[in-house]
Amino acid sequence: MGADDDGYLLDNRQSQAGARFEALATLFDPSTFRHLRDVGVGPGWRCWEVGAGGMSVPRWLADQVGGTGLVVATDIDTSWLTAPGTAIDQVRVLRHDVGADVPPATDLDLVHARLVLTHVPERDAALTSMIDALRPGGRLLLEEADPGLQPLICPDDRGPAEQLANRLRHGFRQLMAARGADLAFGRTLPRLLREHGLVDVAADAYFPITGPACAALERATVEQIRDRLIGGGITTAAEIDQHLDNIAAGRLPELATSPMVSAWGRKP
């Protein structure tokens, strides 16, 4: 992903993107890998990782498909996928807009996207493209956060530090919605997969409530959108500094994420 000021809010070109990718991988890779194992990914599979961002999922997929398989990793901004030392023989990195471009491969065994469609204005076209890329019997796994299901970064809203954190998180979501993000998209995934003709559809959700990676993700996110929060009149520089100090000083031990809804199905 990645775009200009009118597009994706969390631009891959910003320095904090690497910290966000690392925190997201720590938080959600175990759940993602469990779902990928459950759908059967294995040697020789041909896979498309949509909006990959960083290399953690493409690298894991490459280990599973082995030398006879293929992983196509795409993103609008591929800078974190092509950094020195990231190249893997069976991973093909391509710059690609899933909402506008034709699929980069066809007859695929697996298509996976995490935290992608929420930010894509052409969601239906993107979903259709991903399904078109699958072979008959191929598997689709979509994973999207649903902030509307749990809107607080501090569910235990007990004092000024937590209240400030929740107010900043509300402002962050205002900025996302203003750029066309659907903050209730995760819950729609099972229905959308069925409406697009997939069978054996199922879904679950994963919801980290506290941990070092939650704090790291919040710190990187706030630093990345700092100027937009201030410029939008949502908060002040002093309040952001106070929030970041609260995180650093351990005054916010419970920083939650939004529930991550995972939905999967098979193309007939």
List the helices and strands and how they pair.
Layout: H1 17-39, E1 46-50, H2 56-65, E2 70-75, E3 91-95, E4 108-114, H3 123-132, E5 134-145, H4 160-178, H5 189-195, E6 199-206, H6 212-231, H7 237-248, E7 260-266
Parallel strand pairs: 1-2, 1-4, 2-3, 4-5
Antiparallel strand pairs: 5-7, 6-7
Helix pairs in contact: 1-6, 4-6, 4-7, 6-7
Verbal overview:
The chain is α/β, with parallel strands linked by helices. The protein contains 7 helices and 7 strands. Strands 3-2-1-4-5-7-6 form a 7-stranded mixed beta sheet, sandwiched between helices. α2 (about 55-65) links the parallel β1 and β2. It is globular and about 55 Å long.
Main attributes of the structure:
single chain; about 270 residues; alpha/beta; 7-stranded mixed beta sheet; about 40% helix; globular
